[in-house]
Amino acid sequence: MNKTLTQAMALALCSSLAWGTASALDLKGVLKDAVNEQLGTTNKTEAAATTTSQSTPSAQDKLANINWKNPSREDEIAVGRNVTGTILGAAPLVNDAQLQQYVNKVGRWVASQSERADLPWHFGVIESTDVNAFAAPGGYVLITKGLYQRLSSEAQLAGVLGHEIAHVVQKHHLKVMQKQALLDAGTSFLKEKISKNKLTQRAVSTGAEISARNLDKSAEFEADSMGTVLAARAGYEAYGLAEVLQDMETINNNDGSVALLFQTHPHPDDRLAQLSLVSGDQMDNISGGKTLENRLYKLK
Predict the structure, then answer these.
(1) Which of 29-38, 62-71, 82-91, 279-288 has the highest mean pLDDT?
(2) C-alpha span between 226 and 224 (Å, rounded)
(3) What kind and span of H or E run contains 143?
(4) Is residue 277 classed exposed, middle or buried when 0-12, 13-18 and 19+ CB atoms within 10 A define those classes?
């Protein structure tokens, strides 16, 4: 990309304020269909069916009728699709079908170890030299090409994906979006009536901004701990995520590739310290985990 992910994300966030743009960035089903679309593998029948479904107001109606007081599973997925579409509008998927399939295979296996294995999980690697990863409600997870290139084993990939999966499982982003939507609704009630469409527009924009920027430290620490457990449950070496954090410590703070990460997350050494404090000797007692260096997909 000619611009950094941070700059592109800012543009996408501004664009997402317009309802039509947010809908367009849904990208025909976000990750599953977006992979086919960008790689030119979608067949004509699927494309025709997608076009027909897009011409109907069902997707927009679904978003407009989200119950922000108590979002359903379907509400969460609908919001996550649009948040992810906004992110993909800033940084498209890497044009490598085998890479995307591989990351989805690993991610879905790790996600199957969680309490929300039934979500329609989707994973993707996006075109960005930044070192970062993002999660959106409903089971959508993206990692940057810059981060993927620093990984040296499948266990490390599992740890990174486990962290993002944990955010979704704990509904970290959704809860912030819900709070903001209800606050907007309350404020607007005192001043002027607000349509459900407008409320959802704001919430989707907030969700993309949260994904691109930050949650509070406690949420990040919780995701580190839970992500490590999920990767271990999946049969991977428990230290995968810790190894990635150790690698991040070696990157200069002034390196542009980690500028967004360091602005939006606790510093890696703080995360490592907290992970060690929470896990204690538990990770040392987990034996037999696989690292699978040779199985990590090599970028073309």
Answers:
(1) 82-91
(2) 6
(3) strand 140-144
(4) exposed
